[in-house]
Design brief:
It is a single chain. This protein is 13% helix and 53% strand. The radius of gyration is 23 Å and the shape is elongated. Strands 1, 2, 3, 4, 5, 6, 7, 8 and 9 form a nine-stranded antiparallel sheet that branches. Strand 3 and strand 4 form a beta hairpin. The chain has one domain: Beta Barrel (Lipocalin). The protein is built from two helices and nine strands, in the order αββββαβββββ. It is mainly beta and 196 residues long. Keywords: Signal. It comes from Pedobacter steynii. This is Lipid-binding protein.
Length: 196
């Protein structure tokens, strides 16, 4: 009888405590459609600027309901294009002075934290370029489309290239570079289209 009462008491404790445990929801994974997604870049220097595109290789976004919970994407660094179609500039950007694409063919971004609710959030994550990883934070917007897909956009992602070992004509590293200096920061505009 004592054993039955002990078992019953344990059962009551387990049931009561489980009522206070928050349910764990499994995040929904959305696959990024590389063909519908875009990444553009802008690099500035004292005497002007250059801009172009770079292709997305793959990616996923995770959602709890309509709340962004995580994700990652891979950028194909070998696809850097200059909008003015300068073959020399494209070759230089792929060289060791800049992104060294022969050795580092891809860069990655992994979401670590998402702050804010609704369609406007701040995303913090690890950006890896040339095998070097740094944390960056940027604002992003989410839009749910009629076909069930979601568009995640970040119009201005500032990246300090010197933190990734890209020092070419950086005034902060080479003060005597004069008017040949290139800004340490370049900007990315990212649009990811993903579907469950």
């Amino acid at each position: 009888m004592k054993l039955k009462l002990t078992s019953l008491a344990l059962l009551v404790i387990v049931i009561a405590s489980s009522a206070f445990i928050a349910p764990v929801f499994k995040a929904d994974t959305y696959k990024v459609d590389a063909a519908k997604s875009t990444i553009t870049w802008v690099g500035k220097k004292l005497t002007g600027s250059h801009n172009g595109t770079i292709d997305l290789q793959s990616g996923t976004l995770s959602f709890n309901g309509k709340k962004l919970a995580g994700g990652n994407f891979v950028i194909d660094m070998t696809t850097i294009k200059d909008a003015d179609k300068s073959a020399n500039l494209e070759k230089h950007l792929k060289a060791d002075d800049f992104f060294g694409t022969d050795k580092f063919a891809s860069s990655t971004f992994t979401i670590k934290k998402v702050a804010g609710n609704g369609n406007t959030v701040n995303v913090t994550g690890d950006l890896t370029i040339k095998g070097i990883t740094n944390s960056i934070t940027f604002p992003a917007t989410l839009a749910w489309n009629a076909d069930g897909s979601v568009t995640a956009s970040a119009d201005k992602v500032s990246v300090d290239r010197t933190k990734y070992g890209i020092k070419y004509k950086s005034k902060s590293i080479f003060p005597d570079v004069g008017d040949k200096m290139i800004n340490d920061e370049f900007e990315l505009a990212i649009k990811l289209v993903a579907k469950k």
